[in-house]
Each structure stands twice: as C-alpha cells, then as structure tokens.
Amino acid sequence: MKNNAFFYYMVMGVGLFVILVAAYLLNNREKPAVQSPVQSHSVPPQGVPHVTRDELYNLLSAGKYSFIEFGGRTCIPCQKMQPILAQLDDMIGSTVNIYNVYLEDDPSLARDFRVNLIPTQIIFDNEGNEISRRVGYWEKSSLIDELRKLGIM
For residue 131, what are the contacts with CB-CB under 8 A and spacing of at least 6? Predict the structure, then answer.
C-alpha cells in the first residue's frame, strides 16, 4: 500500500513538472516579428509630407501662410484627410505650406499647440500666428470656404 501511494505521488509530481516546463517553454519561445501595417515614410499615400518640431517652427517663421494638421499615422480621420490635403496642396501649395505633424513622434507638440484631440488642423498667418482651428475631419468644401473667408484663396 505504501509503495502504491509513493508511486502515485511520483507520477503526479513528474506530470506536474512536465506541465510546468511545457508552459514555460511555450511562453518564452521566440515570437515571430509582426510587421506593422503602417508604412514608415514621410509622405503618406495620397497625402502631404510630415514635419518635425524644428521644421515646423522654421515653417511658421518663413513668412508664408501654413496649414498644419496635427494627427497620427494610425488615426482613421487623419488618414481620410490625406487625399483632401493633397488636393489642397495641388491647388494652393505654392502659396501655403501644407504639412502633417505626427504627434506620436513628438507628443510635446500637442501641449505647445494646445491639441487635445486628433486630427486638429490649424491655419497660421504669414507671421506664424494662429488664425483658425478645427478639430476632426474637415470636408473639402468647408475647408475651401474657410480659406476663402480668411483671404488665403
């Protein structure tokens, strides 16, 4: 009887040990690299280029009107704005700087420009002063109306 109990506990102990080793190996195996769905390039497909902090401040002091969209690479409304911004760039890009700022690259810019939600579009005059702001998706017709109202188009 004692031998049977000893044998039983040995089998149970070995079984538990095997389960723990298998769980450890499964959790610590090398996981395959997951390819990001976001492409890493400066110009989104059908969009306008993005700028860094230093480039942004240089643009705002360049003596030219600027339309800056503060957003993110994975933000759906930001992605939906890209074709509109590209069309706008084709229309008035020679007189107005049109760029994206990706806040995941430099989150402190959100604080500097008081951006709480994305996308936020800010229009700056030729002296770098904010003259208009909008949060969210901006229809092309509304955007053009705003630029006309400001005398940019």
Answer: 123, 124, 125, 150
